[in-house]
Each structure stands twice: as structure tokens, then as C-alpha cells.
Amino acid sequence: MPKFAHDLLILSCPAVGRRLNRLGLALVLCLAGAATHADTAVREAEFALDTCDTDRGMARLRALAERGDAAAQWKLGEVFLATDRGETERWFRRAFETRRRLAEQGDIKSLDWIAQAFHWGMGTAIDEQAALEWERRAERVRVEKAEAGDVEAQYLLAEHYARLIGSNHALRLDAQHWWTLVFPAIKAAAESGDLLAQERLADMYRYGDGVAENKAEAERWNRVVIATLDAAAAKGDLGALLRLDALARQGKPGWMEARASADSVEARYRAAAVKGCVPAQFMVALRLEERVYPRNPDARQARLQAAMWWMIAARSTEPGHAILVGQARDFLAATKLDVGEEALVRAKAARCLQSSHTDCD
Q1: Which one-letter DSSP state was computed for residue 168?
Q2: Measured at the alpha carbon of residue 283, what is the angle toward residues 282 and 287, in degrees to the nearest 5?
Q3: Is 137 exposed, middle or buried (0-12, 13-18, 19+ CB in 10 A)?
Q4: How far is CA 151 from CA 176, 200, 281, in A?
Q5: Mean pLDDT, to the nearest integer, of 254-267?
Q6: What does the alpha-carbon distance between residue 266 and residue 321 come to, in Å, rounded to a whole number?
Q7: What is the pLDDT of residues 194-243, one digit of tens each?
Q8: Sequence-separated (6 or more) residues with CB below 8 Å from residue 25
Q9: Which H or E run includes 158?
Q10: Is 141 helix (H, G, I), strand (E, B) or coil?
Q11: pLDDT value at position 246?
């Protein structure tokens, strides 16, 4: 892997697999996050790593990766970034090869993935000509499948045009054409109980994609999804709990009812953080930073609390946490504390550490 691509990966793809566009940090889309939703099994393994249940997380990832799961292969590469360049490159190559096989079979998301891989040099050498050829191939397959009546291709084509819209009126019309065409199939699948279709239908109502904008219907379908995930989470389904958490944090209509799930996941991160788990400390800080927005009356408190956890995480000297430590320092610097705030945060961090993480509020 070229050094530029390797450095870009470190800057843009936190090992904890999160993305945050706050504090003026321009984090580009990580190649591993090309899919709309991470594979549930990989997400569960990632959560285990985030909470320092390392043996379980690594065993799960390796099992999935050896069975040919591209997302797990890529995640394993990320895990070794700070400690074993050879293993990182090996697993990134495996992920590239897996995705390429899927792309050759016409998988639209893998076609897009391979185009970006050639563009950034991820798992392969940078090759702009190959990237352009794969982009054209992906576009051709999307259109061919959509025109042949493939519902998933129609939805992905509408999404593709929607991402490119900007001020292009023609693309706006193209997107709406495909949204309108695919809407009846999405609605039928949602009514038959398909969870992903229900999420998509809620978003289509929310944004007026292929149907008249209807916030009430968006909220109703969001509540249907919540009820299904809640029932699964209540039976111990970690994947359902993590999905609820992710959706609750997006602030969609009706998702306040899923706040308890987000609080449950946050409590698990906090429990690991106070035991000295650096990835969990990073996640606690990240989630606090998400609360920093102008109208939040607790924004300043959340910002200072996040800064304290960035500061604590940044003190780690473990080689495996080197990337997280660097990112924690970057976030801390971008927080731009004034002199008084920095003194307060340092005092809070010192008290937290001296108390063995028992006095961190």
C-alpha cells in the first residue's frame, strides 16, 4: 500500500470505526464504510474491541474473515494498523480480492468499492485509469439492473443520483424518477415486515423521495422499526441493540423512544472506560462531542467532559493504541480550549486518573 494511502486511512478511518465531522475536522468517507449499514456480526465484533473484550472480538473477526467476509477482512486490517504493517496489508489485500470477486459477479456496492479502492490505493496500487473504468462499469450495471426491474438496483441508483445532485436539476429529476418507480416495492416490502425496507420507507417519507413528504408517516414507520429492534434487544440480541443505538443518534422523527438503547450502549462504553480501556475512553469522548451543538444547554459541559476523556486517552503508551492516541490529540487540539478551560480539564483528568477512574464526572 502506498504511504499516502496508508496515511489517509489513518486520518480518515478511526480504528473504532466512527466518523465525526465536528471541530472543523474534515474526515473523508472511509472505504470500509461504503455500505449503508455495517454487517451485524462485524459490528458486534467491533463493539467487543471497543470495550476491550479483545479476545472475543478478534476471534469473531478472524472467523468471519476466514469465511470470506470482506467487511471483517478490512476491519482486521484496521486492527493491525498500529502494530503490524504486514498483517494490515495482507488483510486489506484479502478484502480487495473478496470485493473484486463480488464486483465481477455484478454486486453494485462492491463495484463502487473497487472503484474507490483503485482511486485511493486501498488493498491495491493507486490506478486512476482502473478507478475510472470501474466507476463506469458500476454505473452501467446500476442502470442495466434498474431498467431490468431489479428493486435493489433501482433504490441504489436513486441514492447514487441523490448524492450527485448539488444544483443539477436533471439529476434531481433522475433521482425522483427512480425513487417514484421503486416506492411501491419498498412500501410493499415494509408492510410485509422487511426491516431495511421499513427504514428506507421512513426516510422516503421524511425527505419526500418518490412520495409526498410526510413527517407523520416517517415517524410511524420509524416507530415500527424501533418496536422490532426493541423486542430483539430485550431478548439479548446485541446487534439489534447496536442498531437501535446508531439510529437513535441520527435524530430521526420518532427515535427519541430509542434513547434508552443509546443510553445502554453508552453505559457499556463508560463501564469499560473507567477500567482504563482506551478505545472505550475514545468512544465516550466521541459520544459526548456529538452533544456539542449551539442549542444544547449542556453543550459546554459536554465539550469539557469530552476534552477530559480525549486527554486521558491521549496519555496511553500502548503500541496498539497509537492511532487512537494520535486522533485523541487531534480532537483535543481542535476543541480549542481557552486557558481557564484547559486548566479545568487538566484538573478533571488528573482527578479521574488519581482516583483510578472512579471520580471522572
Answers
A1: -
A2: 120
A3: middle
A4: 15, 13, 42
A5: 80
A6: 21
A7: 999 999 999 999 999 999 999 999 999 999 999 999 999 989 999 999 99
A8: 330, 331, 334
A9: helix 151-164
A10: helix
A11: 87
**Structure-block grid coordinates of residue 42:** 462485524
Tens-place pLDDT, residues 321-350:
999 999 999 999 998 899 999 999 999 999
Of the candidates 253, 260, 342, the one whose C-alpha atom is nearest the C-alpha of residue 244 is 260
- For 18-49, give the DSSP string: -----TT--PPPPGGG-SSS--HHHHHHHHHH
Q: Which amino acid is at 209?
A: D
- Give the whole-angstrom CA distance, residue 179 versus residue 172: 10
- Residues whose CB is less than 8 angstroms from the CB of residue 215 and which lie 6 or more positions away in sequence, other chains included: 205, 206, 253
φ, ψ of residue 238 to 5 degrees: the values are -65, -40
Q: What are phi and psi of 27, to 5 degrees?
A: -95, 120
270: exposed, middle or buried (Cβ count in 10 Å: 0-12, 13-18, 19+): buried
Listed in sequence order, the residues at least 6 apart from 283 whose beta carbon sits closer than 8 Å to its beta carbon are 16, 18, 50, 269, 273
- The set of residues, in sequence order, having a beta carbon less than 8 Å from that of 80 and lying 6+ positions away, is 87, 88, 91
Burial class of residue 175, CB neighbours in 10 A (0-12, 13-18, 19+)? buried
Model pLDDT for residues 128-184, shown as the tens digit of each residue: 999 999 999 999 999 999 999 999 999 999 988 888 866 567 778 888 999 999 999
Find the helix packing angle between 169-191 and 195-207, rounded to 10°. 140
Chain length of the chain = 361
Residues of the chain above pLDDT 90, percent = 67
With a CB cutoff of 8 Å and minimum separation 6, the contacts of 207 are: 213
What is the rounded end-to-end Cα distance, in angstroms, of the chain? 43
